[in-house]
Design goal:
The chain has about 290 residues and is an alpha/beta fold. It is about 45% helix and about 10% strand. Helix 7 links the parallel strand 5 and strand 6.
Length: about 290
């Protein structure tokens, strides 16, 4: 259910009245830091990397949850209103879009306006160079919110940018000599990654990971994968592997995780998951 203006107002009043005990989301204490609210993990990661000790970051999507389906709790709505900066990606989380429009006008950043989105695919952070561009803009907005630490924010953003450029080089080098180039995925989440590194994404379903493909689509993908010698059908970490396993059985392939990094668990970070993805792709595509 999408958030409505009346519900948002009521929630904010409830929050102010202190009747929200027990909610999982707790806004940060007033400690002098810039208060950033991020819609989902990659934006939380960027804000923390750039902000360091001067920024408190709250992620609206709990670890291990599917961010597309997020429904905002009353305390989260209050946090959007109180935030110094809200980072979100319009079209990716409808509830956050509406909450940002109603609660945080003038202090929100739609990162899709920075990264030149292609079609309707929102997974722009899977291209390290596009994420570096987002990081630069986040640093600018943090500097506006906290001018006293502007130079540190810019320094940390430059360091993050260098690490992302190095990651891009790792991908370019690691995927330049692959025998195969078709990446068959259960979810159409890897368009930016594929475009950057000369791969072809073949999704079984569209941009919505909960979408159920018709039998003909499954047969078509299985036939194409078999014709092109595909050995691995990928599924993502937050979605059931059943669809990929079905296609894999059809063609005698295996199923494996390719993580779109919409959320992380168990101490993983953007960089560790991206490097795991690279190793997985190199094995699946037979990259020498």
């Amino acid at each position: 259910m999408r958030v409505r203006a009346a519900a948002i107002l009521a929630a904010a009043l409830l929050s102010a009245a202190g009747s929200l005990a027990g909610c999982a989301f707790e806004p940060p204490a007033e400690d002098g830091r810039v208060h950033v609210v991020a819609g989902f993990y990659p934006l939380q990661f960027v804000a923390q990397e750039i902000g360091g000790e001067h920024v408190g970051v709250e992620n609206l999507t709990r670890a291990g949850a599917e961010p597309h389906d997020l429904e905002l709790q009353p305390s989260q709505l209050a946090a959007l209103e109180d935030a110094d900066l809200v980072l979100y990606l319009r079209g990716f989380q409808p509830a956050v879009d509406e909450g940002a429009d109603l609660q945080s006008k003038g202090k929100s950043l739609d990162v899709g306006t920075v990264a030149s989105l292609q079609d309707a695919d929102p997974h722009v952070w899977l291209d390290p160079l596009r994420l570096a561009a987002i990081a630069d803009r986040v640093a600018t907005r943090l500097a506006q919110a906290d001018p006293a630490h502007a130079s540190e924010f810019r320094r940390r953003a430059a360091g993050l940018g260098e690490r992302l450029v190095a990651l891009d080089r790792e991908y370019t080098q690691g995927l330049k000599s692959c025998v195969r180039h078709d990446v068959v995925t259960s979810h159409e989440a890897f368009g930016y990654l594929a475009a950057r590194y000369g791969l072809t994404q073949v999704p079984v379903t569209g941009l919505n990971p909960d979408e159920e493909p018709g039998p003909q689509r499954v047969r078509d993908v299985a036939r194409l994968a078999k014709e092109r010698g595909v050995t691995t059908i990928f599924f993502e970490s937050l979605v059931s592997p059943k669809l990929s396993e079905t296609v894999a059985r059809e063609i005698g392939a295996k199923a494996a995780v390719l993580d779109p990094i919409e959320g992380v668990e168990d101490g993983a970070t953007y960089f560790t998951v991206m490097r795991t993805n690279l190793a997985t792709l190199r094995t699946a595509l037979d990259c020498g």
